[in-house]
Known about the structure:
The protein has two domains: 3-33, no CATH class; 43-100, 434 Repressor (Amino-terminal Domain), CATH 1.10.260. It is built from six helices and no strands. The chain has helices at residues 3-17, 23-33, 43-53, 57-64, 68-76, 83-95. It is elongated. It starts with a helix and ends in a 7-residue tail after the last helix.
Amino acid sequence: MSEIIESVLDDIERMHKAGVINTVTVQKFKKLANVPEPKHLSQKKIQAIRKKTHLSQAMFARFLNVTVSTVQKWEQGVNEPAGPALVLLNLVDKQGIKAVAL
């Protein structure tokens, strides 16, 4: 857990003890703080995830809202996905492409 999250949780506990927020709110913050970090994905894993979806790099990029160049660079190991893209890739890996289809 990051120092920032720990600091926020400490502040939440102090606010609860002071009667500023209730127990339900404290529990909600604690639940949010325990969201796991997305799993790192290697270039081979990213390519395997895409191939499992039977999509071209161009279509896969559209589902993830990134450029084709971005997908190519991930699969070549030039760049690594981060932030929302990494979360979406993990989601597609676990639940399939329908999990991100609108």
